[in-house]
Amino acid sequence: MERIVVVDDDASICRSLEVHLGQAGYEVHSSTTAAGGLELIERHDPAVVFLDLRLPDRSGLEVLRQIEKGSGSRAVIMISGEQDMGATIEAIRSGALDYIRKPLDLDDLLISIEKAKRHLHAPAPQTAAVAVGDTPCSPREIVGRDKKIVEVVKQIGLVSKSRVTVLVEGESGTGKELVARAIHQASCPQAPFVAINCSALVPTLIESELFGHERGAFTGAEHRKIGKLEAAGEGTVFLDEISELSLELQAKLLRALQEREFERVGGSQVIALRARVIAATNRHPEALAEAGLLRRDLLFRLSVARIVVPPLRERRQDIPLLVRYLLARIDHALDRKVEGVSQGALRKLQAYDWPGNVRELENVLTRAVVLTRGDMIEEEAIELAPKGGEPGAGGSKAIKTLREVERDHVESVLFHSGWNITRAAALLGISPTTLRKKIKDFGIEDPRE
């Protein structure tokens, strides 16, 4: 009979697992403290350890490291009821086989035990732990308890152990750059993180942005320029919307990845590529390759590791958690104190399909905070886009142009931020200089003047 040790500060969870896993044919021992758990591990030499992240006498991560240093071959499965992306990534990096969120599901536990059995029969070498600098509820936190998003965080922990290229897939607004930054933070936090939106650059300038150029390489090249691949050093280059690169430039990027070297535009000096490259796309990569928009050989090179970020509509149970997290950020940005959303507002948010995903949810909540006078967001303050982009009820409301919508939104944010340019620019996600230019272009007048 295989032995299992459960270490959790909740005695009821320990008793429940003893009963249910015992009925499944396992010999189970449990403790509510780190010291007691380590003693049980030493005494019974279990094949599997279920270890809580938070224990009364020591951190679960500390216990995990001590287990990994000890003798014997066993699988450690972390369990926690808290949202902590950094701890999840560090646990996987430190040798934990799996990470399960509370409330615990017996089927999930049994699946993890089966995974542990397979792992023990084919053990892989462990990598030394590296501390993760990210903190819970930071602006770069990946928030969620859904199995799909937890799996993404676990994959980040595994991928961060090496320097392989990574392809991140997901719809717009799902947080692909957050995934790239989390990988970077877990593997080389002191090195530069360089992000490039391939769809936002003029095609003729992308090659210079990536590889740099020498003086005189083309008209207007008055000075040598260091490209992003070189500037990233030992860090990370994130290429968002990779299929927007021309096929010619894709071929040059492929060669740089294969040879781990490149030359500046107009130069002959060979420069070593030391950075990790992470690419992202909001479309299915195989479909892009089929359509001739993405080279298949580049796709193979980029997708050594592949992470798929689920859309928000596939993890609706995370919406309440995301709402709490995003409202805290929005309150801080706007210097407001909105306590939460009403039941009606939450039902409305959970019923919506969120084509713009988490980014759209944040925008909707920001608008709701701006329009809310009290400390609770009510249902009527939640303005959602009509399905299929049709006009509102009755179709009588005139459809505004994109410029009109942008002008209205900029003016609204300026008004409700008290015309604080710095705060309004931060909320809009642009620089104060860009905001001032938009105010001038749109002819928005400061009511204080």
Describe this structure in words.
This protein has 449 residues and is an alpha/beta fold. 44% of the residues lie in helices and 14% in strands. It has 18 helices and 16 strands. The protein has helices at 11-23, 34-44, 60-69, 85-93, 106-121, 147-159, 176-187, 203-211, 228-231, 247-259, 285-290, 296-302, 319-334, 343-351, 357-371, 402-416, 421-428, 432-442; strands at 3-7, 27-31, 48-52, 75-80, 98-101, 166-169, 193-197, 212-213, 225-226, 236-240, 261-263, 270-272, 276-281, 305-308, 340-341, 376-377. The strands form five sheets. It has a five-stranded parallel beta sheet with strand order 2-1-3-4-5, with helices on both faces. Helix 4 (85-93) links the parallel strand 4 and strand 5 (98-101). Helix 6 packs parallel to helix 7 (176-187), helix 13 (319-334) packs across helix 15 (357-371) and helix 17 packs across helix 18. The longest helix has 16 residues, at 106-121.
Any descriptors?
16 strands, 449 residues, five-stranded parallel β-sheet, alpha/beta, 44% helix
What is shown here, in short?
The chain has 449 residues and is α/β, with parallel strands linked by helices. It is 44% helix and 14% strand.
Low-confidence parts = 123-137, 388-398
The percentage helix is 40-55%
Strand content: 5-15%
Mean pLDDT: 84
Structural class: alpha/beta
Total beta strand runs: 16
Shape: globular
SSE map:
Layout: E1 3-7, H1 11-23, E2 27-31, H2 34-44, E3 48-52, H3 60-69, E4 75-80, H4 85-93, E5 98-101, H5 106-121, H6 147-159, E6 166-169, H7 176-187, E7 193-197, H8 203-211, E8 212-213, E9 225-226, H9 228-231, E10 236-240, H10 247-259, E11 261-263, E12 270-272, E13 276-281, H11 285-290, H12 296-302, E14 305-308, H13 319-334, E15 340-341, H14 343-351, H15 357-371, E16 376-377, H16 402-416, H17 421-428, H18 432-442
Parallel strand pairs: 1-2, 1-3, 3-4, 4-5, 6-13, 6-14, 7-10, 10-13, 15-16
Antiparallel strand pairs: 8-9, 11-12
